[in-house]
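Reminder: ligand-aware prediction takes two inputs, not one.
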Amino acid sequence: MLAPDGLPVVTATRYVTPLKEGGSLPGIVEASDDGTYVLKFRGAGQGLKVLVAEIVVAGLAALIEVPVPALAVVHLDARIAKYEADEEVQDLLTASVGTNLGVDFLPGSLGYDGSQPPTVDLAERIVWLDAVTANVDRTWSNPNLLVWRGRTWAIDHGAALYFHHSWPSRPPSPQRFAAQPFDASRHVLRRVGGDVSRRHTELAERLTPDAVSTVVESVPTEWLEPTADLPDAAAVRTAYREMLTARLASPAAWLPGAPS
Ligand SMILES: Nc1ncnc2c1ncn2[C@@H]1O[C@H](COP(=O)(O)OP(=O)(O)OP(=O)(O)O)[C@@H](O)[C@H]1O
Ligand SMILES: [Mg+2]
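Here is what comes back for the chain with magnesium ion:
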């Protein structure tokens, strides 16, 4: 089944285990499509905005052929929470009844440790993606890359697009985001890739306004929280689109050059 917005919709059938590594206490669930998902809970401390960032950045990643696990909207019903013995997990499940974000579980994947680096080409695409989306969460202390089937996969984009955390108190400013520098010096792939600025034209061409719009449309409407300046989900979608297209159009402030 497809949500009107685009992502597949499935129902969790079993909570398997928490993923101890994850700061947001993500868990593994099995679902009605026989799939296994890493579940990012709507009831986790960071709220719905991190789920929105996950979807938008993964959608942009796919457009520039950065491997990312498939995403789905996962319904969690109250019965699953009832059978959970661990109190902390039970509280999280109870707070997350409804729709959550499922990330296709990559079985047997390994955390990135530099021993199997991606190609220079892929490293540059990942650094560029993180610069466009202001994702600071890909450093050696938290690489957020998995190695699976001989390729490097990008995961965990909840920290990107952090501008949206200020929306409740101030109106979106595409100009401000377009001018926000990006510090690539601590990026885990900085030294695998070369001069990322050479890649900008080719990669930005794939993120046309229409393509960005389609990605933003794939976010479930109920996850787009209105604010005083953004009265409904359509206004919130427009804001994401405008922020991203403004940044793509003016790379001078944020585009990394060659590693120093
Ligand atoms: N799709 C996946 N397939 C297999 N393992 C995964 C997948 N997604 C996440 N993991 C594992 O779970 C860990 C935590 O996931 P993730 O980084 O997405 O969660 P998080 O709570 O945002 O983490 P943190 O804030 O600690 O970075 C990853 O480091 C990885 O080991
Ligand atoms: Mg992580």
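Residues 9-104 form one domain. The pocket of magnesium ion (ligand 2) is lined by residues 22, 142, 144, 156 (CB under 6 Å). We will return to this case in the review session.
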